[in-house]
Batch of 2 targets.
Target 1
Amino acid sequence: MVSKTKGIVLNYIKYKETSIISKIYTEKFGLKSYIVNGIRSKKGRFNISSFQSLSLIDLVVYENKNSEIGRIKELKFDTIYFTNHHFQKKISICLFLSEVLLKLITFQVPDRNQFSFLRNSLIEFDKMKDNYENFHLIFLIKFSKFLGFEISDISDFSNIKSQSPLVTNFLSDIINSEYSSNVKSTSSIRNKALEIIIVYFREKTELNMNLNSNHILKKIFN
């Protein structure tokens, strides 16, 4: 069956000599894997740049309920980023968020509200020219409600009492912030806040939340 859907690219891995397998969070089908043949050759039908982390794409796919891996018939950008894939700090945030989403979105179950939140957040991120150092933190806090364990107060964090007032005040501020809010902080406080949030997600999901991109993110914003 041929179907149309919007998608958010989470990652891809190389497959054989010229192909890839990409994990894409789709509006219509939830998390899906698609094989794209020949994309790493000169004669490939699609451009590999379409599969950068968190690219927003429109898809026409062959959907087979009996196969875990689908195929893409047509592909084009849903929204073209002007900044997300062009500045190192933003690229690092995109890599981090794509890795987090791969951990947290594990089912082939569509959730249009969740998909809309992700898509709208990434479009807003692309429009931000400065003061976006806290974007990934605010994103995770907002995303928690779609997973059934919304962060609404610093008391939600199990280890918050052992933290310094600077960290708790910062966390309290960003819990009540929008993406455009300019909450000033230092890289060390921001990194500590991120660790607390990741621990929270680990406790609630019982997933392995060890993230390779977390180390890169910390270096970029130091």
Target 2
Amino acid sequence: MGQGVLAQPFVHRDGAFFCEDVPAEAVAIAAGTPTFVYSAAAIRSRYRALAQALDSCASRIHYSCKANGNRSILTLLRELGSGVDVVSGGELARALRAGFGPQDIVCGGVGKTARELREAIQAGIKLINVESLDEIVLLNEIARDLGMAAPVGLRVNPEVRIANAHAYIATGERGHKFGIPHESALGVARQALQMQHVQLVGLDMHVGSQLATLEPYRAGLARLAGLTGELRAAGAQIRYIDIGGGLPVAYNTGDPEPDLVGFGATVAPTVRDLGVELLVEPGRFFVGASGVLLTRVLYRKESGGKQYVIVDAGMNDLLRPSHYDAYHRIDAVRPTGMRVTADVVGPVCETGDFLALDREVDEVQAGDLMVVHGAGAYGYVMSSNYNARLRAAEVMVDGHRHAVVTARETYDDLMRLELEDPNWRDA
């Protein structure tokens, strides 16, 4: 799935590493380490390339903010014309705070609470993608109590087998927790059509992340198209087909970028034939390769015949290597030309705290700065305070400018919600 149209903002030149036109060392001096750094140019490039690929059909991009909910990223994408996809009440609040209007917002998620459903209805958002009959029944009851009607899309499990890097990012195969089983969708839809306070206006799917080919989109969309015809015959006014995200990110040198032209050509004809608006929900594609993690070497160590590079970023900052066995390219900000095979590990008290194992990396020493590539998606949003570690800062770079957009936490932040004098109650 290759297409060379995307900006490459993170490069070595003149012996140093640059984020657009800002030296990484300048960011590290200003913000400290570990710090996530995002490129505005890369996000703009990726948004515009995808929008152009879909311009032959009625479509709307809704950024999946679970990939990275940073306010500056949300604002940038909103200014480019993007909508947003949220999967919790917290993400809905973030989207509204970032200036997205109700009709810019689609809400998904397999386990929405009654509170979250109520907030989505009250906000008047564009579409609530539901994943079970029980959820539709609850949604109808809440909308009735509010004296409103909820716009609903059915998330259908298309039962499409895919090949991707890890089982945890496959979401559309038979038996997965997500969506309504394909064979049950028509029956669930007919029950929804009998409810007075839900309006069935869409169908939704998400087959998984890091899709290696376009075939899952074609196969899944064909299933949704067939179901659209059946639902319309039953009286549904289907206006939206939501095909989720899944466009891959190149995490290693030489990995292909997605074929956006081919993607558009695969989905647009069916969308035009159905006379619907296509909704797409990319997340990782926009921000994964648009961000890096800067980390400083604390120590070098040899143990049991192995070399260790111990850095100040750990699994609490970037969980993907230990959770998904994910690969992230790691370079020295100032490479010397010498290489070493080592484990790159963090300071967390867990054997599973690593960024790379048995990896050939630049020969570095204590105090050197390193860069972890492809860290813009599922980095900060999955980070934690495990070991009472402070969460990293976030920086946005735009040309020659850079700014801290999320401050590094303080010790007071760690304990801010703890109550020194709790209000004890008898049972």
